[in-house]
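G., before I forget:
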Amino acid sequence: MLDPRGPRFVAAVTTIVVVLVLITGSGWLALAQTVVFAFGAIDPRYNPYALAYRWLVQPRLGPPASREEVAPVRFAQRVGLVFMAVATAGYLAGAPVLGTVMAALALVAAFLNAAFGLCLGCEAYLLLRRAFSQVSRRTS
Amino acid sequence: VGPGGLIVAAAVLVAATVLGLVWKARQGRLRSVGVPTPGLDCVTLLQFSAPACGPCRQLHAMCADIAAANPLVRHTEIDVATDLLAARAHHIRRTPTLLVLDASGAPVWRAVGVPRRPDLDAAVTQILDRQVA
């Protein structure tokens, strides 16, 4: 179970980093964000920004009012990983348009989560899980 | 690198803000899904929730409060994780989803997310008024 403010904090930092990636066009900064997502893809609590939240921010906020499931957030981190990995490849391989498009899509998701609490990856996960359970129901 | 990246970033943030505002306005909006049948005088707030869902607790508190204040209103909460059949029967895609049922058990209002309290109060009153009339 996650403190829901953690992923929100992670999304806010991610938003700033991806904006910087877009402005500078830096493949190396995109790579750094990709590595950050890779840790989050293993477990959202291992995301370096989430560790910063737990050590620096959460002690000042007190315990959360509610907890949320880990699996949807992990799925969202994996989607972020794929997008930023392709963006990194684009920037570093001399295809800045590909890098810009993928980073822009990652920015939409990160910003919506940070500013509105709307986690697109989590919604996608829930839709997929539902679709999957219906398929398995039909075939069983 | 020219100013292209900066323009893209700004455009994305503006577009995402519009998207977010639209999403937020739609959250918890009560949609009319039926006409209350005249008859017995009661309303059921049928809430579909999931474990580890923060807004579900918020909605639970709101519904419990309305039910406590009005003896004609009943609040029932269903856990979609344990009662999959009920969730499928009502096509529950997200939690919390709230169905406002009339005395016959037919859904009259439906909201995904947490509705605003005055809107929910109005929906309940509407059904009670219609059923008495």
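Residues 75 and 104 of chain B are 15 Å apart (CA to CA). Helices of chain B lie at 4-26, 54-69, 84-89, 117-132.

More on Monday.
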